[in-house]
Amino acid sequence: MNKKQRIAAIIVILAVITLMFMWLRPEPFEREYRSVIYTNEAGQTGTTVLALSGETFRGLPGKSSFTGSLTADSDLVYELKLKESGGYFFGHIYTFTTDNHIRTIGIVNASLDLNKLWVMLRDVNERYGLKDQDGYIAGPAGTLEEAQQVARDIISPE
Fold this sequence. Notes:
The protein is α+β, with helices and mostly antiparallel strands.
Protein backbone atom coordinates (compact mmCIF):
# COMPACT_ATOMS: atom_id res chain seq x y z
CA MET A 1 0.00 0.00 0.00
CA ASN A 2 1.53 3.29 -1.02
CA LYS A 3 1.42 6.54 0.95
CA LYS A 4 -1.64 7.98 -0.89
CA GLN A 5 -3.67 4.82 -0.27
CA ARG A 6 -2.80 4.87 3.45
CA ILE A 7 -3.84 8.51 3.78
CA ALA A 8 -7.11 7.80 1.93
CA ALA A 9 -7.80 4.80 4.19
CA ILE A 10 -7.14 6.85 7.33
CA ILE A 11 -9.46 9.63 6.09
CA VAL A 12 -12.23 7.10 5.37
CA ILE A 13 -11.83 5.49 8.82
CA LEU A 14 -11.92 8.89 10.57
CA ALA A 15 -15.02 9.89 8.58
CA VAL A 16 -16.82 6.67 9.55
CA ILE A 17 -15.89 7.12 13.23
CA THR A 18 -17.07 10.76 13.17
CA LEU A 19 -20.39 9.83 11.53
CA MET A 20 -20.98 7.00 14.02
CA PHE A 21 -20.23 9.32 16.93
CA MET A 22 -22.65 11.93 15.61
CA TRP A 23 -25.36 9.32 14.98
CA LEU A 24 -25.05 7.49 18.31
CA ARG A 25 -24.56 10.40 20.71
CA PRO A 26 -27.51 11.17 23.00
CA GLU A 27 -29.66 14.18 22.21
CA PRO A 28 -31.32 16.18 25.01
CA PHE A 29 -35.11 16.15 24.92
CA GLU A 30 -37.71 18.14 26.81
CA ARG A 31 -41.37 18.64 25.94
CA GLU A 32 -44.74 19.25 27.59
CA TYR A 33 -48.00 17.80 26.31
CA ARG A 34 -51.41 19.28 27.10
CA SER A 35 -53.32 16.05 27.71
CA VAL A 36 -56.72 14.52 28.36
CA ILE A 37 -57.46 11.95 31.07
CA TYR A 38 -60.16 9.50 29.99
CA THR A 39 -61.63 6.03 30.33
CA ASN A 40 -63.35 3.94 27.71
CA GLU A 41 -66.34 3.64 30.05
CA ALA A 42 -66.78 7.21 31.34
CA GLY A 43 -65.16 9.29 28.59
CA GLN A 44 -63.15 12.39 29.46
CA THR A 45 -62.59 12.81 33.20
CA GLY A 46 -60.04 15.62 33.31
CA THR A 47 -57.04 17.33 31.79
CA THR A 48 -53.41 17.50 32.79
CA VAL A 49 -49.98 18.30 31.47
CA LEU A 50 -47.49 15.50 30.82
CA ALA A 51 -43.81 16.40 30.58
CA LEU A 52 -40.94 14.31 29.22
CA SER A 53 -37.38 15.28 30.05
CA GLY A 54 -34.25 13.30 29.26
CA GLU A 55 -32.16 12.07 26.36
CA THR A 56 -32.94 10.24 23.16
CA PHE A 57 -30.51 7.67 21.84
CA ARG A 58 -30.50 6.73 18.16
CA GLY A 59 -29.25 3.25 17.64
CA LEU A 60 -29.32 0.94 14.71
CA PRO A 61 -32.74 0.89 13.05
CA GLY A 62 -35.26 -0.51 15.54
CA LYS A 63 -32.98 0.13 18.53
CA SER A 64 -33.63 3.76 19.47
CA SER A 65 -34.48 4.63 23.07
CA PHE A 66 -35.35 7.43 25.49
CA THR A 67 -34.12 7.68 29.08
CA GLY A 68 -35.34 10.33 31.47
CA SER A 69 -38.41 11.24 33.46
CA LEU A 70 -42.15 11.59 32.98
CA THR A 71 -44.08 14.14 35.04
CA ALA A 72 -47.87 14.09 35.35
CA ASP A 73 -50.05 16.63 37.17
CA SER A 74 -46.82 18.59 37.89
CA ASP A 75 -46.09 16.55 41.04
CA LEU A 76 -46.04 12.89 39.98
CA VAL A 77 -42.52 12.21 38.69
CA TYR A 78 -41.32 8.85 37.38
CA GLU A 79 -38.01 7.61 36.04
CA LEU A 80 -38.55 6.14 32.61
CA LYS A 81 -36.82 4.15 29.89
CA LEU A 82 -38.60 3.77 26.56
CA LYS A 83 -37.42 1.36 23.88
CA GLU A 84 -38.43 1.21 20.26
CA SER A 85 -41.01 -1.51 19.79
CA GLY A 86 -42.46 -2.05 16.34
CA GLY A 87 -43.08 1.49 15.17
CA TYR A 88 -43.42 3.24 18.54
CA PHE A 89 -41.69 3.59 21.91
CA PHE A 90 -42.86 1.43 24.82
CA GLY A 91 -41.92 1.34 28.49
CA HIS A 92 -43.06 0.35 31.97
CA ILE A 93 -43.01 2.47 35.09
CA TYR A 94 -42.42 0.35 38.14
CA THR A 95 -41.67 0.49 41.83
CA PHE A 96 -40.45 -1.99 44.38
CA THR A 97 -42.83 -3.29 47.03
CA THR A 98 -41.84 -3.64 50.68
CA ASP A 99 -40.91 -7.29 50.07
CA ASN A 100 -38.68 -6.30 47.10
CA HIS A 101 -41.01 -7.43 44.32
CA ILE A 102 -41.43 -5.30 41.22
CA ARG A 103 -44.85 -3.68 40.85
CA THR A 104 -45.85 -2.07 37.55
CA ILE A 105 -47.55 1.26 38.20
CA GLY A 106 -47.68 2.58 34.65
CA ILE A 107 -47.29 1.91 30.96
CA VAL A 108 -46.08 4.48 28.44
CA ASN A 109 -46.44 4.40 24.65
CA ALA A 110 -44.99 7.20 22.52
CA SER A 111 -44.58 7.94 18.85
CA LEU A 112 -41.04 7.50 17.52
CA ASP A 113 -40.58 11.25 17.19
CA LEU A 114 -41.93 11.67 20.75
CA ASN A 115 -44.59 14.13 19.65
CA LYS A 116 -47.46 11.98 21.00
CA LEU A 117 -47.89 10.13 24.32
CA TRP A 118 -50.42 7.58 25.54
CA VAL A 119 -50.00 6.70 29.21
CA MET A 120 -51.67 4.61 31.90
CA LEU A 121 -50.66 5.52 35.48
CA ARG A 122 -52.07 3.89 38.59
CA ASP A 123 -51.47 7.07 40.65
CA VAL A 124 -53.51 9.20 38.24
CA ASN A 125 -56.29 6.59 38.24
CA GLU A 126 -56.42 6.80 42.04
CA ARG A 127 -56.22 10.61 42.09
CA TYR A 128 -59.15 10.95 39.67
CA GLY A 129 -61.29 8.17 41.18
CA LEU A 130 -60.76 5.67 38.35
CA LYS A 131 -59.78 2.70 40.54
CA ASP A 132 -62.23 0.27 38.96
CA GLN A 133 -61.55 1.42 35.40
CA ASP A 134 -58.55 1.65 33.12
CA GLY A 135 -57.78 5.35 32.86
CA TYR A 136 -55.55 6.74 30.15
CA ILE A 137 -53.76 10.01 29.49
CA ALA A 138 -53.17 11.01 25.88
CA GLY A 139 -51.53 14.09 24.52
CA PRO A 140 -51.32 16.45 22.95
CA ALA A 141 -55.10 16.58 23.10
CA GLY A 142 -57.85 18.90 24.24
CA THR A 143 -60.88 16.64 23.72
CA LEU A 144 -61.78 12.99 24.17
CA GLU A 145 -61.82 12.46 20.40
CA GLU A 146 -58.33 13.94 20.02
CA ALA A 147 -57.05 11.78 22.89
CA GLN A 148 -58.45 8.60 21.33
CA GLN A 149 -56.92 9.58 17.98
CA VAL A 150 -53.51 10.07 19.63
CA ALA A 151 -53.71 6.52 21.01
CA ARG A 152 -54.67 5.14 17.59
CA ASP A 153 -51.87 7.09 15.88
CA ILE A 154 -49.24 5.70 18.26
CA ILE A 155 -50.32 2.06 18.12
CA SER A 156 -51.04 2.05 14.38
CA PRO A 157 -48.57 4.46 12.75
CA GLU A 158 -48.96 4.99 9.02
